[in-house]
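Standup notes, protein team

Yesterday: finished cleaning the Desulfobacula toluolica set.
Today: Histidinol-phosphatase structure.
Blockers: none.

Input for Histidinol-phosphatase:
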Amino acid sequence: MNKTDLISLHGGHSGQYCNHARDLLEDIIQRYIELGFTRVGITEHVPPLNDMFLYPDEKALHLTAADLYQRFKAYFNQLATLKKKYRQTIKIFAGMETETYTGYADHIKELILTFQPDYIVGSVHHVNDICFDYSKEDYDKIVSICGSHDAVYEKYFDLQYDMIKTLKPFVIGHFDLIRIYDKDYKKRILMPAVDKKIKRNLKLIKSLKLVLDFNLRPLAKGKKEPYITESILKTAKKMGIRLVPGDDSHGVNEAGLHVDMAIHRLKKMGFDTKWPDPVLVA
């Protein structure tokens, strides 16, 4: 495989700017270069709207939303420096990964105006304003509040639909992340009410000419398949939706991990692997 094909448009979380990641951002960039990447999107998490939406690891360190805003500012400043430093070797796209909770729309739009990212990754990590992907305990709490797993899935895909319409992110992050702690997700995703919302969201993604993140982080955690799952992957292919690999790396050892495999699989399925450069979508 031609190494110029290697790409990740959802990756590069570093220990400098993300508490649940490791290593220095520049070391991660150097790892992409070592692996033969010529383009990479770095997509750090946005700072929270307020202290209510701090992650547990941030609360444990007694950080505030104001602290994380300043850290995010430092992230963009360093990215600008790294883009210039390595411009002869790799094209770095300065991105950010969104959150979706009460008040997110104005918050994200203000961050876009302030920091002028090359593009954004639109993600949903919260249902009922509770983060569901940090721990199974919180995930189960949301299931209890909503009344069933099916209800959680339906609410998740409704939130995602609203986010896509509102932000028009070039990359839709880990489309089916809501399955993270559900051992029966393959059956759940095919339930008529859930399937209807999935297809609705995919139609919107197609109409806006956006890109699905073929997110490889589950493989780094020993899971059997990436986000998105096989049934949704086949639907996306039938609809002509673009997919681009995202390692969702959280350290040097994860940078570029499984991207070769992902590209091979996408090619085998007939997806277009002439990767687009990410942009802000108006």
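Follow-up from PR in the comments: Residues 100 and 200 are 18 Å apart (CA to CA).
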